[in-house]
Design goal:
- The structure holds 2 protein chains of 2 kinds.
- Chain A is 68% helix and 2% strand.
- Chain A is an all-alpha fold.
- Chain A has a single domain (33-294), classed as Cytochrome Bc1 Complex, Chain C.
- Chain A has a two-stranded antiparallel sheet.
- By secondary structure, chain B is mainly alpha-helical.
- Chain B has 12 helices and 5 strands.
- Chain B has helices at 2-28, 44-69, 71-78, 81-111, 113-117, 121-143, 147-163, 170-173, 177-192, 207-210, 221-266, 272-301; strands at 319-322, 328-333, 339-343, 362-365, 370-373.
- In chain B, the strands form 2 sheets. A 3-stranded antiparallel β-sheet of chain B has the order 1-2-3, with no helix packed on it. A two-stranded antiparallel ribbon of chain B has the order 4-5.
- In chain B, strand 1 (319-322) and strand 2 (328-333) form a beta hairpin.
- The longest helix of chain B has 46 residues, at 221-266.
- The chains are: A mainly alpha, B mainly alpha.
- Chains A and B meet through helix 4, helix 5, helix 7 and helix 10 of A and helix 3, helix 4, helix 11, helix 12 and strand 1 of B.
């Protein structure tokens, strides 16, 4: 194949994914329909993710007005927001709870879209942008966790970053020191300190939101362009109109979600689930307190990390990331039935490790 | 004696009756595994009984099951006063909803001739039991406050002891009579499940939530026309009601949000004393940071680290200091009276180890429960694979 035909193949690929003739309001909103079938409920998950992301932007912006990203003042400013600013505790809890809700929706969205084979041609680009946003979302979680600068935040971040350095033990020759260099580059200094806080703050508040907004634009634009994926192999499928029928239902779901997250944020401080000492300001002189764990959405990699040799985790996580990214091409010929079985297996793994991880860990380690 | 029967004998009777009976009913009368619906015979009163009853009892029952399965999570939630009050309030409100609904259902069964024709004695027994059980639960909630907080430590271990076949009634034996009555009532109801309409719990049509919506219409053309006409009028009325409701809802929400919003950005109104306290606390933290920075400077400028006087070192309790890489380290007194200096960074994932030495001369890393020998730095078999480096002993 010569250069010209390669180029025209590429142009054809792009033209198929972004058909200009469909780029108008009538086609993208007026004529858009949503299939009705057994998995139809899954069409709301993407919208819910978007909703929680909007809450994150709103509450995050509000927190920015009071938060101070320095090691001496970060914890004090968070305390000030929580204890003194009117509605501050609510805003902070909303931000924290809605982050968890967003990640929950992202994961459910990923699993259900996989089961519905939503990555089929011409939706590969939508899928790719979605997977990239999944990584960004985990990045949001990891960087945002450090910002309150309390015991659990700093110690959990230390452990998370240290695992990068551990990769070095498996690399040959001079490559062995590369992960340590990468870790210190992310960290900004020899140990987690002011430089790390500044970097994580910048990444959390500016870099990740900008990247996410770009990808999100592409993601949503693609969905409106190509419509919801059919999602089923049934020949006869009924449809409902996207506007106004589906939009109204979507907004209703948003309303219910807001009610739930609002009640939870009013009633439950986010720190409710770990012991009080972990919420104290970080103490650089002193042992790591007990009960340091990452957030629940990292359990699926944290507990295996605790139980299995490190190289297994490196291989498995890289393989999983690659499979996710290449899913539209790997599973091109796979039937939805098989995909659904795979999705159920994946979901079962996530749910079991997330809920019963500690019990499994204790049972295997023989801890009483 | 009666306690032992109610709290240990009865549960097993009930569980065996429930399991055996359910299996038998599914095998013998598979088409009968549901509640006989009387909606066709009478639907006006039913609506006011069945809907509130089910709305209330489903949430209450799910909450009970949740506490049973995840007592730790529940305890963490109810440790918050606001959450506890919210949960108790919702629970009590739902109990009243249940009672109202059940009363309507009972009256309906007693007065409607059509419904009576299909009513069995077991139906009436079940209704009476459920009503008593709800009233008992409500009385417990009202007379022994904050059951949501004390149940995870008392009733839940008791239930688990029953389920794991190691019955231990001591958890609840000293409880007031009301609580015991509520527990015993629950066992009776569980035992009755397969022999009554309660079996429909196991065949709730949950898949209706997932399936594509179906519209059921009467096949009568004249009626269809009337329905369409009714729908038009109804939809106009709905539109107006909807618009008014949405507008007022959004308006109220807007006022509330705006109020909170303005106050948030105004910042708190603090008294002088509060401001002084806050400032003092901040200064303490700034000073702590300054001390850290001074240490850093000292490490950069000087070739030695002043850990502390040798006399103050202890063989059993380490003294933390910051080493040349600005990482935590520990100083102990060795058997020979010479100091032992050892990095406090776990070789596994970089946690800071604890400072107390155990009887085997080891210190503990709390992250993944590994021990290090303070003399050799050797880890016990476990996650850390490398020895801990001895910090150069320049004292």
């Amino acid at each position: 194949m010569n250069a010209v035909s390669k180029l025209s193949a590429l142009a054809g690929f792009v033209a198929d994914r972004f058909p200009v003739e469909k780029m108008n309001v009538a086609s993208m909103i007026g004529k858009k329909v949503v299939p009705l079938h057994r998995m139809s409920w899954a069409y709301y998950l993407g919208g819910l993710t978007l909703f929680f992301f909007l809450i994150q932007i709103g509450t995050g912006l509000m927190l920015l007005f009071y938060y101070e990203p320095t090691v001496s003042d970060a914890h004090a400013s968070v305390e000030y927001i929580t204890n003194h600013v009117s509605g501050g505790a609510l805003i902070r809890n909303l931000h924290a709870w809605s982050s968890s809700a967003m990640i929950l929706c992202v994961l459910a969205h990923l699993i259900t879209t996989f089961a519905m084979k939503a990555f089929e041609k011409p939706r590969e680009v939508i899928w790719l942008s979605g997977v990239l946003m999944l990584f960004l979302t985990f990045g949001f979680g990891f960087t945002g966790y450090l910002l309150p600068w309390n015991q659990i935040a700093v110690n959990a971040t230390k452990i998370g970053l240290q695992s990068i350095e551990e990769v070095g033990a498996y690399l040959p020759g001079s490559l062995a020191t590369l992960p340590a260099t990468i870790k210190e580059t992310i960290q900004g200094e020899a140990t987690v300190g002011q430089a790390t806080l500044s970097r994580f703050y910048a990444i959390h508040v500016v870099v990740l939101p900008l990247l996410t907004l770009g990808l999100l634009g592409m993601h949503v634009f693609g969905i409106q362009l190509h419509g919801m994926s059919r999602g089923t192999e049934a020949v006869k499928v009924r449809f409902e109109k996207f506007f106004p029928d589906f939009v109204i239902k979507d907004l209703t779901a948003w309303g219910v979600a807001f009610l739930v997250i609002f009640v939870v944020a009013i009633c439950l401080p986010f720190e409710s689930f770990f012991s009080y000492t972990l919420a104290e300001p970080y103490n650089p002189l002193g042992s790591t307190p007990e009960g340091i764990k990452p957030e629940w959405y990292f359990f699926f990699v944290y507990y295996p990390l605790e139980l299995l040799p490190f190289w297994v985790i490196i291989l498995a996580s890289n393989a999983a990331a690659l499979v996710l990214l290449a899913a539209p091409w790997i599973f091109r010929g796979t039937s939805r039935k098989t995909l659904r079985a795979l999705a159920v297996a994946g979901a079962a793994y996530l749910i079991i490790v997330t809920i019963f991880g500690q019990q499994i860990y204790d049972a295997i380690k023989g801890v009483q | 004696m009666i306690d032992t029967f109610l709290l240990v004998g009865l549960p097993y009777l009930a569980l065996v009756a429930c399991i055996v009976g359910t299996i038998q009913r599914f095998r013998r009368e598979p088409y009968n595994v549901s509640a006989l619906s009387s909606q066709f015979l009478e639907h006006r009163t039913l609506k006011w009984g069945s809907v509130p009853w089910h709305a209330g009892i489903i949430v209450i029952l799910l909450a009970h099951i949740f506490v049973f399965l995840f007592p730790g999570v529940w305890r963490a939630i109810t440790a918050n006063a606001i959450a506890l009050v919210a949960i108790e309030t919702v629970g009590i409100a739902l109990a009243f909803l249940c009672i109202a609904g059940m009363l309507v259902l009972i009256v309906r069964r007693l007065v409607s001739p059509k419904v009576q024709a299909v009513t069995t004695n077991v139906d009436l027994v079940v209704q009476a039991l459920l009503l008593v059980q709800i009233v008992l639960g409500l009385s417990v909630a009202l007379s022994y406050r904050w059951g949501a907080a004390w149940a995870p430590g008392t009733v839940v271990p008791y239930l688990w002891s029953i389920v794991t076949l190691q019955p231990d009634a001591t958890f609840v034996a000293e409880m007031p009579g009301l609580v015991k009555a509520h527990i015993a009532g629950a066992w009776v109801i569980i035992g009755l499940i397969p022999y009554s309409r309660l079996i429909h719990m196991f065949t709730a049509p949950l898949h209706y939530v997932m399936r594509a919506p179906q519209v059921v219409v009467w096949g009568n053309l004249a009626r269809l026309g009337k329905v369409a006409g009714d729908k038009l009028v109804a939809s106009r009325r709905l539109f107006i009601t909807g618009t008014v409701a949405t507008a007022s809802g959004v308006g109220l929400l807007g006022v509330g949000v705006l109020d909170k919003f303005v106050r948030y950005f105004q910042g708190p109104k603090l008294t002088e004393e509060q401001r002084a306290d806050l400032l003092e606390e901040r200064l303490v933290r700034v000073k702590a940071t300054a001390e850290q920075r001074e240490l850093e400077l000292e490490r950069l400028r000087s070739a030695y680290i002043a850990v502390g006087p040798l006399a103050q070192l202890d063989a059993k309790k380490g003294r933390y200091f910051i080493d040349y890489e600005m990482r935590p380290a520990l100083a102990f007194k060795g058997d020979d009276g010479m100091p032992i200096l050892i990095s406090a960074k776990c070789t596994h994932l970089g946690c800071t180890v604890a400072s107390e030495v155990n009887d085997q001369g080891q210190i503990l890393c709390p992250c993944h429960v590994s021990y290090f020998d303070i003399k050799t730095g050797a880890p016990n078999p476990g996650p850390p694979q490398r020895r801990r480096s001895r910090t150069s002993t320049g004292y």
